[in-house]
Amino acid sequence: MLRFLLVREVNRRLDIAYDYLGLTILSAFALYFAYLTVRGKDLVYSSVSLALTASIVSLIVAFMGYHLIAIVQLLVYVGAAVMFIIVSVSLLGAKETTVRNEYIGVTVALFTLSVLGLYLNKLYTGFTFAKVPPAQTISDLLLSRYMSVLVLIIVALAATIIEAISLAKR
Amino acid sequence: MTAVTIESIGYTITVTGLLLITIGVYGFAATRNLIRMLLSLEIVFNGVFLVILALITSAPSYATALGIILISVVSAEVAVVVAIIAAYYRKTGVLDSDSAENVEGGV
Q: pLDDT digit string (tens) for A47-72?
């Protein structure tokens, strides 16, 4: 019995260690592609790096247990919004001519990091893998409690499409 | 050697989100190119998204609903901003935010 419990505990710790290793690799890739998005020489390649960053973030979200959000992020955000940026930037064909102001960038980034770091340190209470209920429960929640928000989003998205088309046709 | 726990996983996700926010803020503050500023803001969004989801794992149903709403709103924002930038570029021929104040009659 004792041996069985010991083996189970070792397996549990090994699972967590493998999860941690995978998460660390994903995080490193996400940060690398985010850096390429910000510092890349060409705007199109930077946009593609953003798509890769968002895809890896959706993998991390799935890893946390939010599978439905990960699917929505891949389909709606990466598949539609970021692709829209890539196609628009490619069609515009604009070149980057502005000079970076590294001093301001680094100062503001360090300030943000220190303030948010302190704040998050207070907010952070603990972490567990999310046990998300089935999609049926989520859709019931969206169609009952969050119905008004859903209607607002649908109206806002429709208005956005009309606005974007009229702006682009001008 | 310290054992890896679920807490370390939570910390790693939160720190990753925090670093994504920092990289995005750096990109937004360091450049004046409008497309690059939009891309940096999207990096900030991804960081905020990760931090929010890592902080509210105790209420997964509401986190899922919030996540779906957030993604929809950000996608709408992207469409509008890209359309404005395209119209601005067609009018001025540059993507520099510093020259925006010299545009007569708006975009």
A: 999 999 999 999 999 988 888 889 98
Residues near B71 by beta carbon (within 8 Å), at least 6 away in sequence:
A69, A72, A73, A76, A77
Q: Can you tell me the mean pLDDT for B3-28?
A: 87
Mark yes or no for CB contact B73/A156 under 8 Å: yes
The CATH code that applies to domain B6-96 is: 1.10.287.3510
Q: How much is the ipTM here? A: 0.89
Delimit the domains of chain B by residue range. 6-96
Q: Do B69 and A149 touch (CB under 8 A)?
A: yes
CA distance B101 to chain A (A): 16
Contact B72 A76 (CB under 8 A): yes
Residue B104: the pLDDT is 62
Which of A16, A133, A153 has the CB atom closest to B72's CB atom?
A153
Candidates A54, A53, A23, A51; CA nearest to A35 is A53
- Residue A124: pLDDT over 80: no
Q: Which residues of B touch A125 (CB under 8 A)?
A: 55
Give the SS3 label for residue B96.
strand
For B84, left (φ over 0), alpha (ψ -120 to 50), or beta? alpha
Residue B83 three-state SS:
helix
pTM for this one?
0.86
Mind listing the pLDDT tens digit for each residue in B41-86? 999 999 999 998 888 877 777 788 888 888 988 988 898 898 888 8
CB-based contact A61 B67, cutoff 8 Å:
yes
The CA distances from residue B10 to A40, A128, B17, in Å, are 30, 8, 11
Question: Best mutation site among A72, A118, A125, A127 for testing chain B: the one with the most B CBs within 10 Å?
Answer: A127
What gap in Å lies between CA B36 and CA B95, rounded to an integer?
9
